[in-house]
Amino acid sequence: MKKILSFVALVALLLTAAPSADACTNVIVTKGASADGSCMVTYAADSHQLYGELYFRKAANWEPGSRYSIYDWDSGFYHGDIATVPHTFQTVGNMNEHQLAIMETTFGGRPNLENKDGVMDYGSLIYVTLQRARTAREAIKIIDELVQTYGYCSEGESFSIVDKEECWIFEIVGKGEQKGAVWVAVRIPDGMICAHANQSRIHQFPLDDPENCLYAPDVISFAREKGFFSGSDAEFSFCDAYCPADWGGLRACEARVWSAFRLLGGANFDAEKYLDFARGENTANKMPLCITPEKPVTVKMLADVMRDHYEGTPLDFREDVGAGVSRAPYRWRPMSFELDGKRYMFERSIATQQTGFWYLAQTRGWLPDEVGGLLWFGVDDAATSALTPIYTSITEVPLCFRVGNGSMLQYSPTSAFWLFNRVAQFAYLYYDRAEPEIRAKADAYELENLELLKDVDAKALRMLEGGNRNQALAMLTDWCAGRSQLLFDTWSDLNNYLLVKFMDGNIKRQNEDGSFQNNGSGLPIPAPPIQPKFRERWLRAVVRDHGPVIEIKK
Questions:
Q1: CB–CB of 183/173 below 8 Å?
Q2: Model's pTM, two decimal places?
């Protein structure tokens, strides 16, 4: 979704009362960097207006001459229509039946490069391409054909394009009044990981290595024509030409990449070396595009990266007074403000309150596509939610994630999005107390699914090998629905439990079995509750602000 704007643009938006912008995060893991030999990619679709639901389009055959209407993913407005192809593939979320996944983050780029007359917005590029491509290389070719034929009407965009063998980062920006777009795609070397978060990340790239780098033929000449670049071809940097990093681009965007690299890179990534870059203090100290992780990356490790709030780093924002009494790593929007002639901006971490849905797509090329494509799906804030496995061969979406089950303007009691938001809203009040309880539930659920998948995979394989494909798809569909319902029920119980335990700022005492203690009278009266002490830093801030009024006088 749309990026966090540069700091200057943010302040301008505030002064004109315009709505704040949004942002997303992707982390890419190649086969050789993963613990099980799968390719993986994450995506948090972060938008204050996006509803958390799982998109589903069945495979289809199209009559010659038929057209497909394009509606803007962000706004819903009609852009135009495009020619169909004879057959389109099934897509579940941002993954298709051939284990191809495409995720995104918006970097914006230089002003006036959007083509207002273009038909293809970035969201439509993703979902149309998934319906037509089997591999990452095919996807790159199709994206280029679509934007050159119909025009590109969005801002600059970074795509993660991942298939069963290869992982690519693809960056694209429009050409303003000219039709089409300029772009570059770089293959992530096997054994390495990459990340992007609303800031262009591709700098210099090889001009004569089509096995590992593809690009629009005018990507350099167009930059020269516009005055964005004047050096030799070998010196050309896509990022510097089309989205030069400013303070906001580093602090609100590249800092998230820095944190993902810190968590997965360990000793292989010198986090201290690049801290000044992440803090926006040294634009020249650029991080590498890719790094080698310290350990083979598991599904659980990668999922937990998406829950990061810079904990334990100099950017950790749980400790200042803005975190409130419960040390909450959240700041409500707008992100920036001006006070006494100075401008300020809150941190933007990977995990954030405005997430609509988030994914961890896993391509497992050693398995048939019906079993190998796995989309771990969650709704709302990654830090207060859990991922559930969805096979991309399912024949229908579980009810709690189904499109049309509620919306941002209509509450639904059977919608996972509304349930997870209910739990998160409560957690934000008592974060340091509620978060450990929520995290324990998420960990247990995700780890259990990782174990269960071994048997489910094997069962589906036996059915496929026996020629019972429809039976296998029905079994996988039912299993995903059952697990999703279990997650929904677990969070319903958690919602009730958190309210009973933490209501009114107290903490009810519990027995060893988890039941709540009573006062010994035999009546449903709780034992005297725990009332934790306030943290000193917060108390000192209160005293500085209001001390003379609340001071107890002798």
A1: yes
A2: 0.94
